[in-house]
Structure prediction request, 192 residues.
Amino acid sequence: MGFLDTLFGRTKPVKPDLDQLFAVPSAALTLEAAADFRPTGLGSVCFAAVEGGAFGEVERQVRALLDADTDRGGAPVEASQDSYGYSWLLARHTPEELPDLVNDLHAVNSELEANGFGPQLLCSIVAFRNRAGQSLGLVYLYKRGTFYPFAPLPGEKRNNPLELQVKAMLANDLRIEPDLSRWFPVWGAPGL
Prediction:
């Protein structure tokens, strides 16, 4: 970063750090102890699909990588597309297999990134739920290298007080996105 960038307040974008995903199991312990949220065993990766053979081949490789879990008793990956045209891959594990779920999400992101499709990656979500049935997603923003909590309510509303509470709870466990305007709602995200 040069002198003029500093003078005019410009900053370099944060590089994605996929290894941040490996902090989720530790954050899950904090969530369970402090707020009774437990992992559901569901996690998803969102990306903007690109037309063309190269992207199609990488997507097939990613699906095959996750579907390999079916050989070990896991469920096959589910692919879907949301109303905005973004593609989602949903991975399933038992709630006790959170580290395996995180490994799968990391593998999907890494495979897409390694094949030059990092710019198409949007976010990854790990789902949690409490005994009252409140859903909570820890959303990893690929391009920012940060997390934020998303707590949907019926009728496309958000439980903002819970999101801010979780932000404070996980400040020592995860790199939390400081700009609240980037805490985008992910309505209808698979797994939430």
Summary: The chain has a mean pLDDT of 86. The chain has one domain: 14-182. Residues 14-182 form one domain.
